[in-house]
Amino acid sequence: MKNSATKWSSLIKAEAKRLGFLSCGISKAEFLEAEAPRLEKWLNQNMNGEMYYMENHFDKRLDPTKLVEGSKSVISLLLNYYPEKEQVDDTFNISKYAYGTDYHFVIKDKLKSLLTFIQTEIGDVNGRAFVDSAPVLDKAWAAKSGLGWIGKHSNLLTQQVGSFYFIAELIIDLDLSYDTPTTDHCGTCTACIDACPTQAITEPYVVDGTKCISYFTIELKNEIPSSVKGQFDDWMFGCDICQDVCPWNRFSKPHQEPLFNPHPDLLEMTKKDWTELTEDVFKRVFKKSAVKRTKFTGLQRNIRFLDE
């Protein structure tokens, strides 16, 4: 059985690589003991703000066996989204992950292919694919399976690669060979904490969601409070500051996924172009982008807030 688990794990990792994933790690599907008090404390301090979905399915969030019946293994996968080119200097910024086609669609297709491969090669295996659309603690599972460590900015970090990647999972009912966590390499560095314009990283490894620029520009549905005026550093959708300043991201290499390439107009648009944005241009530039989450009116609100 042990030999089969090792063989199957190698097979799955090789196929993940072939499908374009950056890396693949596997851990045993079990209760996330260390995460439980951390998540509870974070929620009790209302650091989720209007992200009420974080309060739902507390048990399922911590225990994949409650989420996927009979599950034995969590396969964690990373997919690079670091772009070759970035937006022009004089502009309102969009988080790099939203440059191209919405990652949910891109990754879901790859995960379905991987699950089909497992079923074809190994046999009757059941499971579900997750791309941050269900109560799964992506970063905790990726760290548990040795794909990196959770940095002081609460993002997953990998030594040779940095942090500009998506995390996804396949939770399946098959025993596999399990990886072990890596060590923390943040050391005494506080670059991310020092650089955050809204002081959202309240202490190392803890981010107050209600202070994060990404929260204000994407999750918050009401008007942005005037108390944070002038603190957004020209970010109109999401924010990459804590990742941009991280020394480990010196090693980021451009992705090889054509679907993540931006619309040709996006990178050239200046502040003037954004303030004059029409709904037609919005629909054209963000046709398949994650920016559609905030809708045209939401992006307009963010631009107004930056431009006033």
UniProtKB/TrEMBL annotation:
Q: Where is the 4Fe-4S ferredoxin-type domain?
A: 174-206
Q: In which pathway does it act?
A: tRNA modification; tRNA-queuosine biosynthesis
Q: Which residues form the active site?
A: 132
Q: Where does [4Fe-4S] cluster 1 bind?
A: 186, 189, 192, 246
Query: Which sites bind cob(II)alamin?
Result: 61, 132, 156, 167, 214, 239-240
Q: Give the record's cofactor note, including how many are bound.
A: Binds 2 [4Fe-4S] clusters per monomer.
Instruction: Name a GO CC annotation attached to this entry.
Output: cytoplasm
Where does the UniProt annotation locate this protein? Answer: Cytoplasm
Which one of the record's GO molecular function terms can you name? 4 iron, 4 sulfur cluster binding
Q: Please give the InterPro entries that the UniProt record associates with this protein.
A: 4Fe4S_Fe-S-bd, 4Fe4S_Fe_S_CS, QueG, QueG_DUF1730
**BP GO terms, sorted:** tRNA queuosine(34) biosynthetic process
Enzyme Commission number: 1.17.99.6
User: What are the coiled-coil residue ranges?
Assistant: none
Keyword hit for Oxidoreductase: yes
What is catalyzed by this enzyme?
A: epoxyqueuosine(34) in tRNA + AH2 = queuosine(34) in tRNA + A + H2O
Residues binding [4Fe-4S] cluster 2 are: 196, 212, 239, 242
Assembly mode = Monomer.
The record's listing under HAMAP family reads: QueG
State the name under which the record lists this protein.
Epoxyqueuosine reductase
Q: Which organism is it from?
A: Aureibaculum algae
Record gene name = queG
